[in-house]
Amino acid sequence: KNEVEQSPQNLTAQEGEFITINCSYSVGISALHWLQQHPGGGIVSLFMLSSGKKKHGRLIATINIQEKHSSLHITASHPRDSAVYICAVIKGEDNDMRFGAGTRLTVKP
Amino acid sequence: DVKVTQSSRYLVKRTGEKVFLECVQDMDHENMFWYRQDPGLGLRLIYFSYDVKMKEKGDIPEGYSVSREKKERFSLILESASTNQTSMYLCASSFLGQGRNIQYFGAGTRLSVL
Lengths: 109, 114
Fold this sequence. Notes:
The complex is a heterodimer.
Chain A: E1 4-7, E2 10-14, E3 19-25, E4 29-37, E5 43-49, E6 52-56, E7 59-64, E8 69-74, E9 83-91, E10 97-99, E11 103-108
Parallel strand pairs in A: 2-11
Antiparallel strand pairs in A: 1-3, 3-8, 4-5, 4-9, 6-7, 7-8, 9-10, 9-11
Chain B: E1 4-6, E2 10-13, E3 19-25, E4 31-38, E5 42-49, E6 56-57, E7 65-70, E8 73-78, E9 87-94, E10 104-105, E11 109-113
Parallel strand pairs in B: 2-11
Antiparallel strand pairs in B: 1-3, 3-8, 4-5, 4-9, 5-6, 7-8, 9-10, 9-11
């Protein structure tokens, strides 16, 4: 079983919809990242979280340390949000980074 | 802005060829990483380096080697490419103090081995 599980694997939405992507992990962590990978491969870091909630524009990321769960929300989704979203954790014991398999989001106009 | 540059976006090679994937970063980062990304498996660490001439095996080092002769450049080498090495390869870098907390990624190299 992967240490980091994401759901769903694929998500198709209509423009304007509220999007939620989930990430569960099974190890102790010091931090969690949400990454965005555009078609063609480039990856950018959206958020780094160790507790609570962060907001940047239409993106909101939350983490519940006790439940070992994080969510990424996109409000008023737009076709330019179409990308693969990857959850990554920094393991607390050894600082190793572990990645989820990614969620492919397609937002249709 | 941090820039991590991978020398090729797309590569097509034949089985048995020696393949070099180059990565250069311009922010004087100590740490550099090579990952491969496969559908359903996410990113997996191949090798990383925390200093010039230093290297550490990641989770899947078999069939790969690396070279870090200069701080800004980290090369991934496939000594004898095989079809199961067809994948997307991503390079990343970070400051030593941040460990792996904030990594900056290159655009990726999509390698096809025929």
